[in-house]
Design goal:
This protein is an alpha+beta fold. The chain is about 35% helix and about 25% strand. The protein starts with a strand and ends in a 6-residue tail after the last helix.
Length: about 170
């Protein structure tokens, strides 16, 4: 098993997307990249910690590659908006890839460079993986547990529709 650590806006959204992918065995919502230890959701929302909302993905590389995860990551959020995804604004919603090894760094940089070559102004941060702090229990599998919640109904279905339209071969 391998791991990937991505931030693409609200972790409820990114978690819901990556849980649909073949070879992904686990997705944990959490926080990374800030200057405090054991941050809380309230601290993150206040913008005082500089942590990003992220997901830690456990995946089987014999079923899905890191490159394929990157393709899904870039297709299901906007990597061109700084500190914003849709109506969610703040540094906690930044686009970020925290790489766990040199190969992930190389592949991530190649993906960013390819998007820039297509004319996209990619602002995705690429940094070594910092300490990951799991979010509070109520955030885990949030969409699956709260499918009729207002935010979930508004923000997540368009991302899942993009996933299903573009990556049908990667779905469970």
């Amino acid at each position: 098993m391998q791991q990937a650590l991505f931030g693409g806006g609200c972790f409820w959204c990114t978690e819901a997307v990556f849980l649909q992918i073949r070879g992904v065995s686990k997705v944990v919502s959490g926080y990374a990249g800030g200057h405090t230890t054991h941050p809380t959701y309230e601290e993150i929302c206040n913008g005082d910690t500089n942590h990003a909302e992220v997901i830690l993905i456990d995946f089987d590389e014999s079923q899905i590659s890191f490159k394929q995860l990157l393709d899904v990551f870039f297709a299901t959020h906007d990597p061109t908006t700084l500190n914003r995804q849709g109506n969610d604004v703040g540094t906690q919603y930044r686009s970020v890839i925290y790489y766990l090894n040199e190969e992930q760094q190389r592949q991530s940089q190649e993906a960013i460079d390819a998007l820039k070559a297509e004319g996209l102004n990619v602002v995705t941060e690429l940094s070594p993986a910092p300490t990951f702090y799991p979010a509070e229990d109520y955030h885990q599998n949030f969409f699956a547990k709260n499918p009729s919640q207002g935010y979930c109904n508004f923000a997540i279905p368009p991302k899942l529709n993009k996933l299903r339209a573009k990556f049908v071969e990667l779905l469970k």
